[in-house]
Amino acid sequence: MNKIFKLSxxxxxxxxxxxxxxxxxxxxxxxxxxxxxDNFWKTEADIKSAVASVYSPMRLPLSGYWGAFRGxxxxxALGDDVLTIxxxxxxxxxxxxxxxxxxxxxxxxIFAKLYSCIYRANLVIENAAKANLDATLTxxxxxxxxxxxxxxxxxxxxxxxxxxxxxSVAQSSSDAFVPSSPVADIYQQAIKDLSESAxxxxxxxxxxxxxxxxxxxxxxxxxxxxxxxxxxxNAETTLAKLLTAPFDYDLIGNYEDNFTxxxxxxxxxxxxxxxxxxxxxxxxxxxxxxxxxxxxxxxQLTGSPASGGWxxxxxxxxxxxxxxxxxxxxxxxxxxxxRMYASLMWKYSDFGETNTTWxxxxxxxxxxxxxxxxxxxxxxxxxxxxxxxxxxxKFTTAWRNAxxxxxxxxxxxxxxxxxxxRFAEVLLLHAEAALLNNHPAExxxxxxxxxxxxxxxxKTAADFPAAADMMTEIQHQKxxxxxxxxxxxxxxxxxxxDATALKTYMSSNLKQGAQRIENKHYIFPIPAAELQTNNxxxxxxxxx
Length: 544
What we know:
One of its GO terms (cellular component) is cell outer membrane. By secondary structure, the chain is mostly helical. It is built from 21 helices and eight strands. It has helices spanning 2-6, 8-20, 44-59, 71-77, 90-96, 105-127, 135-160, 173-176, 183-200, 215-228, 232-240, 298-302, 317-324, 338-343, 364-375, 423-436, 440-453, 467-481, 488-495, 499-508, 528-533, and strands spanning 82-84, 163-164, 180-181, 269-273, 313-315, 344-345, 391-392, 418-422. It is globular. The two termini are 43 Å apart. Residues 1-7, 17-33 and 280-285 have low confidence and may be disordered.
């Protein structure tokens, strides 16, 4: 995957030319070495680099939707599984406390990045055939672009509601600006793109192309989109395809390997963004210019200052309580759910187990002492720690046990890939769809695969006398399995469609800012900058 992304800056140069248009300079000068729309779209290398550029805005290690400073930071901040440390970036603090508005810089940037993906995808879809490649090759590249466009629209629909629908490249300024379409239409476009791409994408990728979209990734997000619009029949049927041939996905034995660089592109990986050094180290700000570093920035945001991190999050006492709710059976090698040891750090002896160390022999007390000043910024209610003191391990480099491991500017920054879709999520999405489609036996199979990997006993139908009991179990497992993976907020919105009920629930879990939750917070507002630029666009009704 790294090879294809090295080409992306070429396509971006062409995209800039297309945006500017074909007007000639009044000097009528030309440079035969300059890339233009007329001499691009001629070879497979052109098409491949253009496709690579479509991925870029979503996977930027800082500002992409899965990047550290945007989606990872802000979407996670909305949930009740982590608390955001006060005093950080104002835009994130606003989101975390439900005091954001249309001028919020983070939500504006996410919006813009997604439309950048859509624009670039449209260019590929409309121009790929110009290279006169083998029909199958062309179809595959177009399918890849459609997948990324569909994924972008899925994210926009679930996070912004009604937004502009753009499925072709604007030919003039008059058709560049369009009004919002209803969120139902945005979801249907995502479903159309994901469905069509699932037909033409390959089941697997060669070693050098790992990380590019596959049929499995398109199918997984297609099923997720159906679930989000409450089409449980299609959601169950679509997600069930991933449980059988030609797919061979499975849960890997060690849960933590999904978040390190030890076992990348494993059986559980449905889609992951590739990170690692290019030619120039420590320059994460201009990835699209080519040759720059693409290290994983998440450890920097998550870790303790004692490990080189900036410590922007702490596990909520609610999620700790949920992890501790069901101890493992007597005689197990750990007291708690296996996922807890991969997700959190704590002083094991406080709960009757043997202590361990991280980051080249640092104790938990060392890590905690380094964050105490930041924790003091919280209101008193968040500093009582009735469940004990815990820090995040997931998305740090604690697993490496190297000094200063979370420091992006250390000798060896993290090159761990980011899982965008795991098979574990597929199982839980399928279980939810199957249960809501009145197939509890199918739901139970997925629940038990997740439970057994976590070191818990399998359940039987008798454990769930009512469908609501099984739904509670699915929700519990989703919380623990997908902790800190940008899913919690959208799950809660789906499970609590009434804002009053959600406010009550999240307030009971001591989610910061929960008392401010209103219906409008189920989506982000259309950014003010977009409204100023596009005179055909109006603010979503909930935010007027």
